[in-house]
């Protein structure tokens, strides 16, 4: 009875905004209004202890944090202590409370009379995180990228060293933390006069290489390729197994060839469409020219006919009147 009375009470209108306003576009992508209400209902709101959002809060505190930690491990350089500090700062309470206010969650949050929502905003944000961790992988990655990793207040956390902006430095850190070796680049000139860049490990192993006409672009390509290879979860096995390393290089070459074939096919389709448009334009131009010539010929013919009629009329007017017609006109005037 107490729960029914509480649910029948009108919702407070402070900070209320309509569900269809632009601020809720992202939340509507993941929640219906009923789902959001369920996720943001604290267990103190119910009489029974087994109801509420406590399971979502647990999922957000641990499973969702694990997803973010996995992203940091895969794509951000640094020692374990540094990554731990970054993770802690990403989920600090001040940041979570700011999300609670930005999303205007107070209008949906429900709790018992003795539970202060204002001092427990982070609990409800963790519940949101917990629900997100149960959704599709694409939605999870989009959410983590937009609201956890790429927010403006996280920029300084993810660039704690200038080296983090350098892909080669990040790749070197990955190798060093994996097996202690170091990564460097070596440049050479091929017989064809091209620049070949090699990503070399400190023991002489060639991780990957790239060739280009440009010295700078060759370094850029090999650095990007090395970073992609070292970002693989199986990088430790790849660095210790030459056969697997060769298969990875072969797969990268196959992907490169496939991308090149796709680009060439796309360019061929564009060229074919362009030729079709040009042929269609020429046909339309030819039809317009024929129509213009026909119009000009018809106009010329009309002018000639008009001129002939005018000449015949003038010649007729200049002929002398016959006696019969002259008598007829004179009698008509009388």
Distinct helical segment count: 13
Uncertain runs: 1-23
Oligomerization status of the protein chains: single chain
CATH topology value of the largest domain: Ribonuclease iii, N-terminal Endonuclease Domain, Chain A
Arrangement of strands in the largest sheet: 1-2-3
Mean pLDDT: 85
Tell me the β content: 5-15%
User: Which percent bin holds the helix content?
Assistant: 55-70%
Helix and strand topology:
Elements: H1 2-8, H2 25-30, H3 33-39, H4 54-75, H5 80-90, H6 93-102, H7 121-132, H8 137-149, H9 167-179, E1 183-189, E2 195-201, E3 206-212, H10 215-230, H11 235-240, H12 242-318, H13 323-333
Antiparallel strand pairs: 1-2, 2-3
Helix pairs in contact: 4-7, 6-7, 9-10
Gist?
This protein is mainly alpha-helical. It has helices spanning 2-8, 25-30, 33-39, 54-75, 80-90, 93-102, 121-132, 137-149, 167-179, 215-230, 235-240, 242-318, 323-333, and strands spanning 183-189, 195-201, 206-212.
Task: Give an account of the 3D structure.
The chain is mainly α. It has 2 domains: 2-162, Ribonuclease III domain (Ribonuclease iii, N-terminal Endonuclease Domain, Chain A); 166-240, 2-Layer Sandwich (Double Stranded RNA Binding Domain). The chain is 63% helix and 6% strand. The chain has helices at 2-8, 25-30, 33-39, 54-75, 80-90, 93-102, 121-132, 137-149, 167-179, 215-230, 235-240, 242-318, 323-333; strands spanning 183-189, 195-201, 206-212. It has a 3-stranded antiparallel sheet with strand order 1-2-3. Strand 2 (195-201) and strand 3 form a beta hairpin. Helix 6 (93-102) crosses helix 7 (121-132) and helix 9 runs parallel beside helix 10 (215-230). Residues 1-23 have low confidence and may be disordered.
């Amino acid at each position: 009875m107490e729960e029914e009375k509480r649910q029948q009470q009108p919702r407070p209108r402070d900070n209320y905004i309509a569900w269809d306003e632009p601020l809720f576009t992202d939340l509507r992508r993941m929640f219906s209004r009923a789902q959001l209400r369920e996720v943001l209902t604290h267990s103190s709101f119910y009489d029974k202890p087994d109801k509420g959002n406590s399971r979502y809060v647990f999922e957000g505190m641990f499973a969702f944090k694990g997803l973010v930690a996995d992203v940091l491990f895969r794509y951000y350089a640094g020692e374990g202590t540094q990554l731990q500090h970054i993770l802690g700062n990403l989920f600090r309470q001040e940041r979570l409370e700011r999300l609670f206010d930005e999303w205007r969650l107070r209008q949906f949050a429900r709790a018992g009379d003795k539970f202060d929502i204002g001092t427990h905003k982070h609990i409800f944000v963790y519940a949101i995180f917990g629900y997100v961790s149960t959704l599709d992988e694409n939605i999870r990655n989009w959410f983590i990228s937009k609201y956890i990793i790429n927010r403006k207040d996280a920029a300084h956390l993810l660039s704690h060293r200038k080296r983090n902006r350098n892909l080669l430095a990040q790749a070197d850190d990955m190798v060093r933390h994996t097996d202690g070796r170091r990564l460097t680049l070596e440049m050479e000139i091929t017989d064809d006069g091209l620049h070949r860049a090699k990503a070399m490990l400190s023991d002489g192993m060639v991780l990957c290489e790239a060739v280009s006409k440009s010295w700078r672009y060759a370094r850029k390509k090999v650095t990007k390729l090395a970073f992609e290879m070292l970002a693989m979860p199986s990088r430790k096995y790849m660095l210790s197994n030459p056969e697997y390393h060769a298969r990875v290089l072969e797969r990268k070459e196959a992907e490169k060839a496939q991308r090149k074939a796709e680009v060439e096919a796309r360019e061929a389709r564009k060229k074919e469409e362009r030729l079709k448009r040009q042929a269609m334009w020429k046909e339309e131009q030819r039809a317009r020219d024929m129509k213009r010539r026909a119009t000009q010929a018809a106009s010329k013919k009309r002018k000639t006919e008009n001129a002939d009629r005018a000449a015949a009329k003038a010649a007729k007017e200049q002929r002398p009147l016959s006696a019969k017609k002259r008598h007829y006109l004179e009698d008509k005037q009388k």
